Backbone:
């Protein structure tokens, strides 16, 4: 006798098969010929064509009248926009932070760009003690791993203006980390872009090390930054260590969920 859960999970095979056509279209930025599309969906053109006819009637697929190539249709666009409006980067980030902390056993922080700069909004603490006052609401300087990610990927004019304002002696008195001028930061920011993450080993906060990675939205803008933080003595600083790779994978997964095609 079939188990009740198996009945609930049973789908319609033809929809799942035809769905590969929609996946192929979504993964390619340009319209595709019937042959190309069938190959990408791992089926014959004769098998793919009836699906395309039905999807075209629904508006999921549109065929160019001149080239005959297929692309996503108006209904697919409406569905995509609706999905993006429902997504919450912070909610996705909090779930990812919990999973990442359990995987690497280091404290994970989520940060957004606030009025005073990079601001921590959520913390998943590990059992490894961190000798710094890190909590929701903490503002990080641009010289920290978190700050360097924002500085590397946000519009240069925005960051340059922020740096100029932060150099004022009474600006942002509770910020964590040092200050630096815009020109002297350029080499470090280029390193961030080359590796896709930022690294801070024992500085600007003594005894504390971190990796930080950007999460991008569907427009390619930085939605938030995920940071791994730990005591320097037990923190592998290699750019390609397991912790750094786990962080990259986590940030890229959220970016894809937010509609970023190439994090």
Residues:
């Amino acid at each position: 006798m079939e188990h009740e859960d198996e009945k609930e999970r049973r789908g319609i095979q033809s929809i799942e098969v035809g769905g590969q056509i929609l996946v192929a279209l979504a993964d390619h930025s340009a319209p595709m010929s019937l042959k190309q599309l069938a190959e990408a969906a791992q089926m014959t053109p004769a098998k793919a064509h009836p699906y395309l006819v039905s999807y075209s009637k629904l508006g999921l697929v549109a065929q160019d009248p001149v080239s005959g190539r297929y692309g996503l249709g108006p209904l697919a666009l409406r569905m995509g926009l609706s999905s993006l409006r429902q997504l919450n980067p912070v909610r996705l980030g909090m779930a990812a932070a919990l999973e990442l902390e359990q995987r690497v056993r280091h404290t994970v922080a989520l940060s957004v760009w606030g009025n005073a700069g990079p601001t921590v909004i959520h913390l998943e603490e590990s059992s490894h003690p961190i000798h710094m006052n890190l909590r929701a609401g903490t503002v990080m300087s641009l010289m920290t791993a978190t700050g360097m990610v924002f500085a590397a990927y946000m519009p240069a004019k925005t960051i340059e203006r922020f740096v100029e304002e932060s150099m004022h002696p009474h600006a942002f008195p509770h910020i964590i980390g040092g200050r630096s001028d815009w020109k002297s930061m350029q080499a470090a920011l280029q390193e961030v872009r080359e590796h896709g993450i930022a690294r801070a080993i024992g500085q600007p906060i003594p005894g504390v090390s971190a990796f930080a990675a950007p999460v991008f939205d569907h427009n390619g803008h930085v939605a938030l930054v995920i940071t791994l933080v730990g005591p320097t003595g037990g923190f592998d600083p290699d750019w390609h260590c397991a912790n750094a790779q786990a962080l990259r994978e986590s940030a890229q997964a959220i970016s894809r969920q937010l509609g970023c095609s190439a994090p």
About this structure: Residues 87-257 form a domain with the Beta-Lactamase fold (CATH 3.30.450.40). The first helix runs from residue 4 to 9.
